[in-house]
Amino acid sequence: MPTYTINGGYSFRLPDGTLLQGGQTIELDEATAAQHSEKLSPAGVDNNRVLGAVLQTLDGDLVGPDGTVIMSKMTPRWGQIDAAILGSSDDQHCFANLEGTLVVSNQVGTWTSLEGDHLLQTGAPVSLNKDAPATAFQARRASARVTRVSATVLTMPLPGWPDGTGVMDLHIRSAYAQPSWVRRLVALSNGALRIVATFAVGGEQTTAKLAQVDDAIATPGVRMIIGAGGIGNDLLGGVDPAVTIANITTIARKISKAGLLYCVRLPPATANMTTVQQANGRKIMAALESLRAEVPGLLLVDEFAATINPATGLGKPELFIGDGVHMNRVGKDLVAAQAWATLQPLFASPISRLIASVTDCKRSEPLNQQAMDGFWLATGTTASTLNAKATGTVDAAITNIVVGGSAAVLACSLEARSDGFGYDQVFTFTPGGNNQSFQITMTGPAGFEFWRNLSAGDYDFGCVLSITPDAGLEVTGYQHYIQATVAGQSGRITEETRTEHGVSNEPPLKAAMVCNPCLFPPARLTAAPTAASWVFAINVGVRGTAGNKVVVKIGRPTSRPSPFASA
């Protein structure tokens, strides 16, 4: 069969769902090739294409009739891009959408979290919007800047609101809100991609996202908008695909007109798609692929090809939680890899900016500060000596270690990093029964507690983390956060957890999870902290053969002042 080259800016989907991009070659019979002539050129032919009076070059630049570049789609390549999230539940992070009780009195709202500590400091931008309003009070919307009263209480001005009380969702429109797939994407970029705002609301469809796109575009410093924009919820809700296509087209045109990049996540092949949903999804994907010929800066992340099982036409079940719609951690990591493949050409190569030093001893970079010094637990330390705090055996930095459950064993060792910089702590935990756990709390050695190196301002934190359960074990969750006392109030300032807010019955972690680096959402401190601790906790459930274990490798956290101010 003849060989063709796919024209720049186009893509071609094979019958098994595989998607080929511009510049790749493909063998096709002449009849099939004729049906897709606008996408194909004979092998070896220059595949620049003309869009009306505008020429799109191979590297993505759009060049006008006079030869001037009118928009650069793939160049210049940046060292760092600030982005805003425009999506729904898959684009939420557990601290992007908190639920709490709102009491309004004299146009001032007092909001109390029902979910524990929040990360917000005074001045942070938020919006109030109940995902599924049941009353007129919950149906109201507002955007404001908050005052931090405590780790669970915020106040905010609500002019025009009547006095009342109700449960309201609080959406954090700041750099703190990073869903797990985006968090993984940020890690893959080594921090070159930075999330500065989120407009993710669970359950929202494209019509609602269209109403929010102007706010997303107006985010200070934003260069890119990322997200599915409610496409998946349109599919699940039976929205006419013509409406979806019209909405997403308008959104894309608005973003492009503002001179921003728009990275759209095409809907995945979910594990319980109906034939109608499959057909509607293909229509939307085809429309978006065609839209790239019109809209400069439109980038597509195709989740369909990565998630489909060609034998069934449905999504691969192992990528989804029990509802067959929302992806699990493995699926979200896959989405992040797909997104990075699309976005990587935008960035300078190699990426030069580390969001936090993950090679514990890089003192030559003055902005990178090692958060804590010294070793942790010496090789050979076991559960029987953990609470003894023997000198030279247990680091003075560790103020608390708890191993839950009888017969549980925690063996500790130090492992030299493969890059030659320092050590990682290795915890080998063998639970003695179901849902047993261990937890560590660290404040830092005397004279080098990391809070002493922090003052008011924005900070990036990072470390190394991997969790590898044996077959027969399930990790039912972990917490990993930094807690500090700022302006007399104690609360978490940043955290990285596995559980996603708004996604029910997320399954336990069965496969290995490696985050190197593990990047925390940026933290804004309004004053120098007077105390701080770093906490890592894990719960392990035993399933199957007794004596199986989970191995956790973790590196000391590092901090650096962020060169990019939060929104």
From TrEMBL:
- Its domain of life reads Bacteria
Q: Which Gene3D superfamilies match?
A: SGNH hydrolase (3.40.50.1110)
Identify this protein by name: SGNH hydrolase-type esterase domain-containing protein
- Biological source species: Ideonella paludis
